[in-house]
Amino acid sequence: MLLKDELPNDVDRISQIQYAAFKGHPMHKPGAEPTEHRIVERLRASNALSLSLLAEENGEAIGHIAMSPAIVGEAGQGWYLLGPVGVIPSRQGAGIGSALVREALQQMRKKGAKGVVLVGDPEFYTRFGFKGIAGLTYAGVPDQFVLGLSFSDKEPQGEIIAHDAFNVSSE
């Protein structure tokens, strides 16, 4: 498996991965169309994709992860929001998402990020060092799904403010 930075000719493949990965996902209302592909498209259009990694195997695009800047409470900038991360349905559970998360975290450390926050499944993300942190919130999301990983001894505190690209509804 090859993990690589997004290239211009990968854009459509990335949208297809994110759409397929979240089509019929339990977190979406039954019958609702996924929005994750549109989030990535909007982040890209706003030059807010801090990291966009594509997983390929034998030339086939099989997974993708995005990172974008986020404001976290009074700590302000230097924090990044992980997501969406998607893997094509036929390859889910094969370690592709885990490989993408590990590589993305390594690259964000090298870029000097303060840390990474996300909204997601604690059972999946705690294996990478993410944890629920008292006082770390995301509007409208139950606290158990709001996770953070600091790259220093200072834990993130306050409300996570994501890029406006995340304010998209299924249409």
Automatic annotation (TrEMBL):
Pfam families for this protein: Acetyltransf_1
SUPFAM superfamilies per the UniProt record, alphabetical: Acyl-CoA N-acyltransferases (Nat)
Enzyme Commission no: 2.3.-.-
Enzyme kind, highest EC tier: transferase
The keyword Acyltransferase belongs to this UniProt entry's keyword annotation: yes
InterPro entries given in the database record: Acyl_CoA_acyltransferase (IPR016181), GNAT_dom (IPR000182), MshD_Acetyltransferase (IPR050276)
Record's keyword annotation contains Iron-sulfur: no
UniProt keyword list: Acyltransferase, Transferase
GO molecular function, one term: acyltransferase activity
Domain of life of the organism encoding this protein: Bacteria
Domain N-acetyltransferase: 1-152
Protein name: GNAT family N-acetyltransferase
Biological source species: Halodesulfovibrio aestuarii
